[in-house]
Structure formats: C-alpha cells, structure tokens
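Run log, item B.
One chain of 233 residues. Sequence copied directly from the ordering sheet:
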Amino acid sequence: MINKNYSNLIVLVLAVSLLIISGCVNPTPQGTAQPTPTATAQTQTPITLNNYLEEAKNKIHTFGPSNSSSSASIYISSGQKIDLAVPLMLDGDGNPLKMFENPTITGDLKTMIVNTEYGKALKINGTGGEIKMTQDEGNPGSLDNESLFLGDFTISMSNNTVVDLNNPFTYQVITYSGNDVKDLRLFYSRSGGQSGKIVYVRTGNFSQPSEISISLGKGWPYINLYGDNVVVK
C-alpha cells in the first residue's frame, strides 16, 4: 500500500510540472534578473553639405543621363510651434518652381506658397521636420543651354540675381519667423545632367562647409546663403 503522504507529494509534483509547462508559473527563481530585450539604437544621419551633395549627385541621373534638375531641402527644429516663411527657387519668369507645390515632408509640417511684402515665400507651420523637393528640368539640348539654365539660379526675397558659376558666392535673403527657431537648414541646388555640374546655395558659412545650421529670432531677419559649385560624374 502506498503511503498517503507520499501519494500527495506525487500529485503535488505533477501539478507543479503541468503549471510550469503551461506557463502559469515562472520557473526562474525570485531575485534572478530577467533578460531585457536589446533596444536597437536609431541614429539620424547628420545633415551636412556632403550629404546634400551626394544626394544631388544621385539625382543627376535620376531623370535621365542628359536631364537637368532642381532640388531643395529644408530642415527645421524648434521647441515650440513653427511659423516661418523662407525663400523659394524661381523660374525664368519669376514664378516658384512647381516642386514647391507638392513637397515630400517628414515630420509635423505643413507648407503653402504665399506672397509677402518682400516677395514670394514658402510658408511653413508645424513643430518640426524635413521638407524635400525635386524637379526634372528636362534635357537642355546642349552644354551651352545647360550652362544658361544653371546660371539662371534665382532665389526669392534675395538681393542677388546673378550667380558666378566659377567662384563661391553669397546670397542675402530675408526670412520671417513668428518665434525663435533653434535649428534651420536650407539647401537649394541645380544639377546639370550633361556636364555633371551642381550649383548650390545653403545656410552655414565658408569656414565650416560641413555645418549648415543656423538659428532665427522673431521678425524678418536677413540671413546669408553661401553658394559654390562642384562637378561630379
């Protein structure tokens, strides 16, 4: 005959075993640290002149090996609501390029083209993010036509209308900000498909070409956009 206490022990062992298998009881002893899932670090690529030039270089052949293109990138970071008006790239008739009507936006931003007392501008509202635009300009037909296209690089709300394609240059533009903005980065470029030449202007300065970040105060501050050109193949 089986001892009653021994029988109860067997029943208890079997019951606990079934609970462990079903997951109702945690088999890890108390006080033992549980493994923590490793978080994957999300790193954001720094927005630098080299990043933009590499991006513009890739766009040279996006629309065809002989097509020219225009592009722009705007990055904004602020601790409060954003109310901005920044310059636009213009065509030969003084109208904003079509690409500004349907930008690609990452983050919480809304845009619209507006008229200001200083000229046409891109009005931006939201909390922060990045705006990108690209436009296929077609095949200019010849290197001479492409050179004219690249030289017809016009920014609204600016005191400059002519770009020296052979030397660094500066645009002075006016912007509007309804509040302080801690990080504003502007980049405008034109790419020649046949020559491989990229003409660009950007926020920043000549002494630190990899940094293109500025801050803005309230009102209508003037800022400098520094420009240059590179040739890529």
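Observations after the first pass:
- The two ends are 94 Å apart (CA to CA).
- Residues 49-231 form one domain.
Flagged for discussion on Thursday.
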